[in-house]
């Protein structure tokens, strides 16, 4: 049975041991690094399935490590950091991180975030192996070829902007997308100050695809940061 390989990048020995012990008890393989230089070499040589990355390393800022890895790989990166300001989270996510967990953290939450990331990774691999142009998540279905979306087989009538928003979230299911990233991808030349407009479009999209927009099951809000489409368990 294949055991996912996790690269743990953490310079605090106690935290590093906590994470690796937790991974070992859950049957994961792991490698470790305590500096930015080591982390990049480990990522290149061992090609891990997921990187768990601390931002505050002695030789290099974690955001720079994310940018370097993104220069040649899309391997998922989960940031685990003591930095709790929204700006730090946005910078890491904009650089290419897939998720952000703030210290102190519970090992249960770390494992849950890891499972979500691995499910997304498996989905991406399966999707790449198929020629299908249809996305399915719970009762939501998007037919990319036809340019149509459905909830429980009933077509949802979306505006062009709403459809582009939905497709962007679907193609990054499980990943937090920042406001700036969404604005750039959907509008192209939008400015950070356009975030209120994005919230309006997201609210109208939710009304059309969510059974209860006040308790959404598909589109999760990360206050001050952005949005994420949740993967609905089969």
Automatic annotation (TrEMBL):
Modified residues (4-aspartylphosphate): 54
Compartments where located: Cytoplasm
SMART domains, A to Z: REC (SM00448), Trans_reg_C (SM00862)
This protein's record includes keyword Ligase: no
Portion annotated as DNA-binding: 132-231
Molecular function via GO: cis-regulatory region sequence-specific DNA binding; identical protein binding; phosphorelay response regulator activity
OmpR/PhoB-type domain location: 132-231
Any single GO BP term: positive regulation of DNA-templated transcription
Keyword set includes Hydrolase: no
Keywords: Cytoplasm, DNA-binding, Phosphoprotein, Transcription, Transcription regulation, Two-component regulatory system
Record's function text: May play the central regulatory role in sporulation. It may be an element of the effector pathway responsible for the activation of sporulation genes in response to nutritional stress. Spo0A may act in concert with spo0H (a sigma factor) to control the expression of some genes that are critical to the sporulation process.
PANTHER family xrefs: KDP OPERON TRANSCRIPTIONAL REGULATORY PROTEIN KDPE (PTHR48111:SF50), REGULATOR OF RPOS (PTHR48111)
Protein name listed in UniProt: Stage 0 sporulation protein A homolog
Species assigned in the record: Bianquea renquensis
